[in-house]
Amino acid sequence: MKEAEVLKFLHAQPQWLYEHAAEFNLRPIESKILSFQQGKMQVMQQRTEKMASQLIQMLGDADANHTLMAKFMAFTQRLLIVNTLAQWQRAISDGLNNEFTLPYHALIITADIPKNVRVPVNLHVNEKFKVIGKKLTAPACGALPVAALLELLPEQPRLESFLQLPLRWKEQTLAILVIGHEDEAHFSPDMSTEWVAAIADNMAAVLARLFKLVR
């Protein structure tokens, strides 16, 4: 065996030399042995700390997901019992206020309203919102919404971030929900919209039923 191979083996298995030192009449330096053992302990400690950190994060994520699911279910339950557009509007507003603490929001119909459906005055659509509804096909988060939607929100307090949420049914935007927040980072452009999209689907499904679009 070549010297390089021996050195490579000893570097890979440093404890081997300490375990067989007596066979070669060698006396290992105690401090070196201690350093090796300490090194192993440090590695084990680092691994343990990393696993503990990952476990804490997993538990935190589980708690957050459980809380979010509870809010989602409570919001959806409000929608299940509505029979009129006024009740639908109130259920959404109450859910945003109570479940998600989002008091600054506005809801507007963007589709043609069936003649036999009674609609609250503040939900009536006009042409500019119909145009917006055709263009807005997915949730949009960021610093500034479409100007016409911004006009629906209160001027005070100053809102810094916004969620524009189309309520779509069968590839058609029936309504738009716009939400504002005082924290500029609350609705960031890179945030996940999976949950809000699911809530939008539920709101749209109920609206489609009230519009008698569900067969």
TrEMBL record:
<protein>
    <recommendedName>
        <fullName>DUF484 family protein</fullName>
    </recommendedName>
</protein>
<dbReference type="InterPro" id="IPR029016">
    <property type="entry name" value="GAF-like_dom_sf"/>
</dbReference>
<dbReference type="Pfam" id="PF04340">
    <property type="entry name" value="DUF484"/>
</dbReference>
<dbReference type="InterPro" id="IPR007435">
    <property type="entry name" value="DUF484"/>
</dbReference>
